[in-house]
Amino acid sequence: MKVRRLLTLLAVGLVLTACNNSDDDMPKPPPSGQEGNNNNANANTAFTNYSRRMEMPRLQGDAMSLFRVKTVPTYGVNYCYEFDCLQRATRWIAFRWDIDNSVDNNIGRSEMWDEDTQIPEPYRVTLDDHRSNGFDRGHMLASEDRQNSREANAQTFLMSNIHPQYNSFNASPFVWGNMENYVRRFYLNWTPKKNAQDTIYAVKGGTIGTQGGSIAPDDQILMRTAKGLIVPKYFFMAFLYKNTQASQGGYKAIAFWVEHTNGTDRTSGNDLKKYVISIDSLETLTGIDFFCNLPDDIEKVVESNCTPKAWGFQ
């Protein structure tokens, strides 16, 4: 019994040592990357410039969490994410669509599936972990949303950007793929007509059983694979649109919340409205504080309101 207790303490110590965050882990930011934090009581304060980007949720910041950033030479930040070492799973992926990264250079799918070396090896998810388990390797930041460069696309195939998903959930014409297509088309159709500088700030993920939110941790997980990977029971998307045409100070927001099922849900187009909720409602469900770097007065209004019509729904 004493030996077992000692081994447990050593294991916990290894987690606390390996799963730590420091600015040394981050790529060096450009001098002008900081955003938000104006009259904002809950803005991120660690990892200046990266964590204060507008797409960022509030970092959990505990000893089991890793905050990581993927960058490319052409435009800087490709996406950010928070990884739970204890669960060996990513809590969320945060990224944006803007004039720099939404360019379609017809890169295609790199298929460069690989482990993420920014995660310490004891907690890293490998390609072998995903093999022959009956699930797709489901992208959070979709390959189709990074067609601007080969390197940006390749980063979407890292295991830190992947959750196990049923094929009849993940791929078009099924519901997750249809949600991705809907928002992508909305942005690409709207921006050229209105303002080329418009931006969508996005957060996507699956529930991995961490504390917080109105759903008990055990009820957030559908199952674990034979190699211990979490299969989320729910998936979510949160979007904040900044443009000069919108009300509420130039911002509008929307979220999607959908149960992960092995059915044949082909919901698309206007019918996707049934999965729409407000950002406030998504925060209640997940315990994640989305878009925490918005000034408080804007955040309060934008996150509590949800107007599907403003996002093209009838």
| Largest beta-sheet characterization | 7 strands, antiparallel
Strand content: 15-25%
CATH class: Alpha Beta
Sketch the topology as an H/E string, one letter per element: HEEEHEHEHHEEEEEEHH
The total count of strands amounts to: 11
Give the averaged pLDDT, no decimals: 87
- Ends distance: 63 Å
Widest sheet, order of strands: 1-2-3-6-9-10-11
Explain how this protein is built.
The structure is a single chain. This protein is an alpha+beta fold and 314 residues long. It has a single domain (2-311), classed as Extracellular Endonuclease, subunit A (Extracellular Endonuclease, Chain A), CATH 3.40.570. 22% of the residues lie in helices and 22% in strands. The protein is built from 7 helices and 11 strands. The strands form 3 sheets. The chain has a 7-stranded antiparallel β-sheet, sandwiched between helices. β7 (221-224) and β8 form a beta hairpin. Mean pLDDT is 87; it is low at 1-18 and 22-26.
